[in-house]
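Hi,

I'm pasting everything inline rather than attaching a file, because the server keeps stripping attachments. The sequence lines come first, and each chain or strand is labelled.
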Amino acid sequence: MVEQIIYKTLLASFILILSLLVAMYSTLVERKVAGWFQDRHGPNRAGPWGLLQPLADGIKLFFKEEFMPNSADKFLYILGPSLTMFIALLTSAVIPWGPDLVINGQTYAMQVADINIGILYIFAIVSIGVYGIMIGGWASNNKYALLGAVRASSQMISYELAMSLSIIAIVMMTGSLSMRDIVAQQQGFNWNILYQPLGFLIFLICAFAETNRAPFDLPECETELVGGYHTEYSSMKLGFYLFAEYINMFISGAVMATLFLGGYHFPGLDKLGLSPNVFAFVSFMVLFAKITFFGFIYMWIRWTLPRFRYDQLMKLGWKSLIPLAILNVVITGVVILLNQ
Amino acid sequence: MMNLTNRSKVVSNKQMTFWERIYIPAILGGMRITFGHLFRRKTTVQYPEVTREFSEIYRGKHVLKRDDDGRERCTACGLCAVACPAEAITMISAERKPGEEHLYREEKYASVYEINMLRCIFCGDCEDACPKEAIFLTREMVRSEYARGKFIFGKAELVEPFDPAKRIDISKRQTPEVLEFKKNRSYKHNR
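And the predicted assembly:
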């Protein structure tokens, strides 16, 4: 029992540090990829290939002036970015990172919490995510920040619907809300994306909208709203908002890989006869590769597509994605019924 | 009506087909284009390590020439300052004392000669105006600085080294035709 508690603590710390590291280097990768897409090099001055650039950016953010508007609500102003960061990190708790480890004859699950309503937990956390932005925008007492926050909240609520509906089809197929069961059912090449291509597409689009990434980055639309909800933020509080976006990218990549791309499974990997711990490690790397792939997709889309207009965004969400998601649920239901 | 170019396209307001309306093929097409750019040759010139190729007659930082005996050619006549459209050049003249004949070519010289490199537009008019072949623009760049004051270049930065081996070659900017033109006293410019 004690060992389990120590193990869980270590695993949680490891995942926390991993998400922070990944988010840190995503900023560099983002700028590098942006550079390559535009026939440039991207940052390459700080350290070899610019590897120290995230460090330099972090130091810069720490040393910037801590500015707070006179009319801001002090408590909420600080709560906004903290909440955003906290919630971004919270989602990773239910993601199964790999198969069980075996240490001294005891098995340890590579998942911080295997709650049987894992998917509901993710939806709950994602819905709270909007509070961080809304509180920050409201507390700034600035019209641009407030408009950005209102946009963010209505956008996130609209797209959460289609997102949940696309997941319902998966839940119907799996018959379980636990992330662990969903991964276990996708063993080998039995990936959900092959059965739910439409559901995957809807989920992908909604994930872009939920993380406020281009082409859905209207909440921080600089052409209209100066900086959107973080207009009045500076120093590390701004850093938290920007950082949380990259953590969200990482976690949503993990969720998509888990739900649709078979999690840590890879065809033929379990037939290689590796020892359990090596197998767990390789599987974890497989999952990590899938997350990296999604991270690249995020950046690829961002540097390809222009931003939506707000009415287009709402039209896409309510008039296209939600009916499609409902259709997907109905088709899935009919197919399941016919196969019984 | 005659077309100015053959690039004009007729715009139509036709209804989009289903495939056009769902945008997915168009998005994939766009992603294909951007992906192609990942592996293109980068257009960046890594400046301090690599400098781009300059023309032989590039107009960069100025040099104040010495003559073959190492004496400063400039006589502080002020024609360059008058010609300068950006009013970047200032100078103070002084009289050559006995015993300074090896330093200055003529009886008058510039004790202070300053060019404000932030004002200078590198047009080369000073060079055209100079009757003594004293000032030329070179292929050297003006380096960047943190303080504005450092961009006011005095004689220390501008006069070329005394050592004949280190003199700055301006033969590309001063072609034989220009030399010939400057010798012709019948032009008002050269009087």
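Chain B touches chain A through 15 residues (CB under 8 Å).

If the labels don't parse on your end, tell me and I'll reformat.
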